[in-house]
Specification:
With 264 residues, the protein is α+β, with helices and mostly antiparallel strands. The chain has six helices and twelve strands.
Length: 264
């Protein structure tokens, strides 16, 4: 799973001028540039985690910055094990800002969630395990958006809603990367650690798409792009293998793009 944490952008102390020191030509603009880049990354992270205005339904909680599963369980008067079971979490530490968590027992499970020991063992049995992948796999509403494949190649990793929030399409370096749908370039750069040379296209109030690990970026922030327009070239920036990491987000959450992409 790729990290969305921003890189550390701090200037060495020797580069920060004091009031009494002589200022080398151009130092001020360079420092302002660093501050501007930090602000850009903060705004970008906000866009990734809060694209959309979905209301929180009763019995659910939207993960906030700094939250841990233990804190959420304490606030909601339940246990971490209940939250893990109700949300089919494979890793109790892998929750994301903006993620929607069930914090009340699903219908018919109240007695099971309140008991311990023997009753707790039932959800771990084989039958519920089959439905775990379904619970993790988020999909966009049918017909909400129509995509084209962002690159030609072989899908070497699929979406699973847990360890992989997107898909990886593998091909040779320089393979064209195109916009899966029309929209506006919300980000074009390499300021997010783990994504390499990255493009983010905002399609509307609910959808955005992510194109990572490119070798070359061909669009600028604020630029309008059409569906199928070349926006980058495939590469392996910040990755061990050449390939495009493609992610689709609906209302701030990663969804399986398979239902919106045409069959290969």
């Amino acid at each position: 799973m790729l990290s969305l944490s921003a890189p550390t952008l701090s200037a060495p102390a020797s580069q920060i001028p004091s009031v009494a020191s002589a200022r080398p030509p151009g130092h001020g603009p360079r420092l302002l540039g660093r501050l501007g880049m930090c602000l850009c990354i903060v705004l970008l992270l906000a866009l990734l985690s809060a694209c959309g205005t979905t209301k929180v339904q009763p019995g659910y909680y939207r993960v906030q910055s700094g939250d841990t599963l233990t804190q959420i369980a304490r606030k909601q008067g339940t246990s971490v094990s209940n939250l893990v079971r109700w949300n089919s979490l494979s890793n109790s530490n892998a929750i994301e800002v903006g993620q929607m968590l069930r914090v009340q027992a699903p219908g018919g499970q109240a007695s099971a969630s309140s008991s311990s020991g023997k009753s707790r063992a039932k959800p771990a049995a084989s039958p519920p395990r089959a439905s775990t992948s379904t619970a993790k796999r988020r999909t966009a509403p049918p017909g909400a958006i129509s995509l084209v494949w962002p690159a030609q190649g072989k899908v070497t990793r699929g979406y699973d809603g847990s360890g992989s929030n997107g898909i990886v399409i593998s091909n040779s370096s320089g393979t064209p990367v195109v916009a899966a749908a029309g929209g506006t370039v919300a980000y074009s750069g390499s300021g997010l650690r783990g994504y390499g040379h990255l493009v983010i296209v905002k399609h509307n109030a609910s959808f955005l798409s992510i194109y990572a690990h490119n070798s070359k970026l061909l669009v600028k922030e604020g630029q309008s792009v059409k569906q199928g327009q070349k926006i980058a070239e495939m590469g392996n920036s910040d990755s061990k293998q050449v390939g495009l990491y493609f992610e689709l987000r609906y209302d701030g959450q990663a969804v399986d793009p398979a239902g919106t992409l045409p069959p290969k």
